[in-house]
Amino acid sequence: MTTHSLPDLPELEPAKTLRVLIADDTASNRNMLEVFLRKLGFVSITACDGQEAVDRFQVDQPDMVLMDVMMPVMDGFEATRNIRRLQGRHWVPVVMLSALSNDSDVAAGLDAGADDYLVKPISFSVFAAKMRTLSRQLMMQRTVVESLEQIRAISDAVIDGIITIDEQGVMHSCNRAACSQFGYTPSDLIGQNVSMLMPEPYRSEHDGYLRHYINTGEARIVGAIRQVTARRKNGELFPMELGVTDIDLPDRHLFVGVVRDVTERERQARERAETRARLERLYSEQEREQELARSIMERQIHGDWLKDPRLQYSVAATTRFSGDLMMVARSPTGRTFAMLADATGHGLAAAISVLPILSLFYAEVARDVTLEHLVSAINTQLRSGLPVGRFVGAALFCLSADARKAEIWVGGVPEALLLSPDGHVVKRLASDHVPLGIVDSDRETARTTHIEVEPGQQILMYSDGLIEAHRNDGTEFGPQMLEQTLAASPAEERVATVQRALADLLEGEPHHDDVSMLLLTCIPHPDSA
Predict the structure, then answer these.
(1) Coil, strand or helix: which one is 168?
(2) I need a surface site. Which of 82, 294, 375, 378 has the fewest CB within 10 A?
(3) ω before 479 within 30° of 0 (cis)?
(4) Which pTM value belongs to this model?
(5) Do 30 and 68 form a contact (C-beta atoms < 8 A)?
(6) What residues contact residue 210 under an 8 Å CB cut-off, 6+ apart?
(7) Which residues pair with 451 in a beta bridge?
(8) How far is the C-alpha of 10 from the C-alpha of 67, rounded, in Å?
(9) Where are the beta strands (DSSP E) in 133-235?
(10) What letter does residue 307 receive in the DSSP assignment?
(11) What gap in Å lies between CA 384 and CA 339, rounded to an integer?
C-alpha cells in the first residue's frame, strides 16, 4: 500500500464502536489502516495471513473485515469464503483490498463473498466514504435484525400457534407454541408442506383448496375461524381451532394461520355436558320425590273440613312446599277447631316439621278434647320429635257449637284479630306463648284465652310472612295496611281482598316467606241447625 499523510476528515460517530479485522501480510499496510481506522472511530484487529484472519474472526467476531487478496497460507478469496460460512445469520461486510484491478479479479472477489472491492493504492477519501456507507448499512441491517428478533420473541410469547405458508403451502415460519402443539421442532417444519400437520383426507386435498382460493378468491377457510382435526408428530389426532389470514403482497400471497389446541376445552365441555345431564336427572328425581311427598301430605289433610262455608283461607308458599299449614275439624259435640301452624324456615324441611301433628290434630279433635289438652298433646309430640333449633309457631282456636264462645291460644305467630262484621278490629288476641316444641308441656304452656263472640264477628289468624312481606325497596305490607284492607273489604271476600292488596304492593316481586291466612265467621255450622 502506498503511504502518505492522512487528510483532515471528520471522525465517524457510529451508534457503537465497530471493530474491523485487517488481514494483510504487509506490516506497513496494517499499521496504516489501523491509524486511519482509529481516526475514523473504529477499533482494529489484525491478522498476517488468510488462515489467521479466519481464526481471529471466530474468536473476536469483528463487525467488518478488510481483506487483502494476495497472502500466504490462505489467500483472501478462500479466507472470505470461510468467513461467510462462519458468520451465521449476522451480516459482516467484507471489503477486498488488492492491487489487482482487472475485471476478472474484481468479479472473483465479489464471487468469493466480498461486499466491495478497493484497488490499491487506496484513496483515503473514497475509503472513508466506503466505511461510512458500510457502517450505515450495517446499522440498518442490525436494526432490521433486532426488529425481526423482537417480532420472533413476541411470536414465541403468544400462547396460540402461528404458522406462515406461501402459495404452495410450504411453511416459512412457526412459533414455539405451534411447535409444541404438534410436537415438532422448527427445523422439522420450515420448508415442508403444511399438509403434513393434517390427517387424511384433508392432507391430500389441502393444496387443491389453496389453488382454488388463489385462482377464484372463493374462501372456504381463509378469513374465518373454524374447528378442524389436526395431527401431531406421533400420529395422535386432536381438535384444533384454526384461523387463516391472507396477506396479499404485491407479487404473492402469504398466509398466516393461528392455531389453538382445544383438546382441554373439548374435555371440559364434555364434562360440563355430563354434569348438566347428571344434574337434570337429579333434579327430575327430586321433583318426583317432592311431588310424592306433597301428595302424601295432602292426603293427610282432611280437605273436606276446609270446605266449611264459614271459612276463608289462603296459603302462598315460596317454594313447592309450604312450612305453613292449616287444619280445621269439628268435634262430635259440634265445636269447631282450627289451627294455623308456621314451622321454622320454609320448603320441604319446614313442611316435614309440621307433618307429625296432622294425624294427632284430627285424632284429638275426634276425641272431643279441650283446646288446652290439644295444645299440650301437640307440644309434647313436637318436643320429642323435632331436632334442636326446630319449632312451630301456631295459633289455635275452638268455637263453640252455638258460635257464642271461643278459646284462643297464640304462640310464635302474630296476634290473632277478632273483627266486627264491618271488618274493624274488636279485640287483639296477643301472641303470649313460646312456639310449640321448645319447652315441656305444663298448665302455663297450654293456657288458653276465653272470649265471648257475637254472630257475624270473624276471627283472623295469619303468619308473619304476611305483614313482613316487602318490596325490594323496603316498602312493607305491615299490620296497618292489613287492618285498612280488612276494614275496606266485604266480609265474604276479606282474605281474597288481602291477597290482592299484597300482590299490588309487591308488583310482581316474590315474597320472601310463606304467607298464610285463616278466617272463620262466628256463626253456627249449617249442619248444626
Answers:
(1) coil
(2) 294
(3) no
(4) 0.51
(5) no
(6) 167, 168, 169, 255
(7) 406
(8) 24
(9) 161-165, 171-174, 225-231
(10) G
(11) 20
Q: What is the DSSP letter of 411?
A: E
Q: What amino acid occupies position 236?
A: E
Q: What is the DSSP code (8-state) at residue 309?
A: T
Q: CA–CA distance from 360 to each of 371, 436, 438 (Å)?
A: 13, 14, 18
Query: What letter would DSSP give residue 305?
Result: G
Separation of alpha carbons 396 and 326, rounded Å: 10
**How far is CA 429 from each of CA 10, 62, 410, 461, rounded to the nearest angstrom?**
113, 106, 8, 10
C-alpha–C-alpha distance, residues 160 and 221, integer Å:
18
Residue 424, C-alpha cell as written in the block: 274493624
| SS3 (DSSP) at 33 | helix
Q: How far is CA 284 from CA 35, 276, 287, in A?
A: 94, 12, 5
Mean pLDDT by 10 residues, the chain (529 residues): 41 63 90 88 92 93 91 91 86 87 83 87 83 86 74 74 89 90 92 92 84 79 84 92 84 86 90 90 75 61 75 76 78 94 69 76 94 94 83 92 95 94 95 92 93 95 90 90 94 94 88 86 83
Closest CA to 457 of 416, 498, 485, 496: 416
Cβ atoms of 14 and 39 closer than 8 Å: no
Nearest to 116 by CA among 75, 66, 56, 81: 66
Which domains, from first to last, does the chain contain? 19-154 (3.40.50.2300), 159-261 (3.30.450.20), 301-528 (3.60.40.10)
Give the residue carrying C-alpha cell 467476531: 61
Find all residues with CB under 8 Å of 225, minimum gap 6, and list them. Answer: 241, 242, 243
Instruction: Look up residue 199 and give its three cell numbers.
Output: 390427517
Q: Cα angle vertex 522, ends 520, 526, to 5°?
A: 90
Query: Which of 258, 165, 169 minimizes the C-alpha distance to 212?
Result: 169
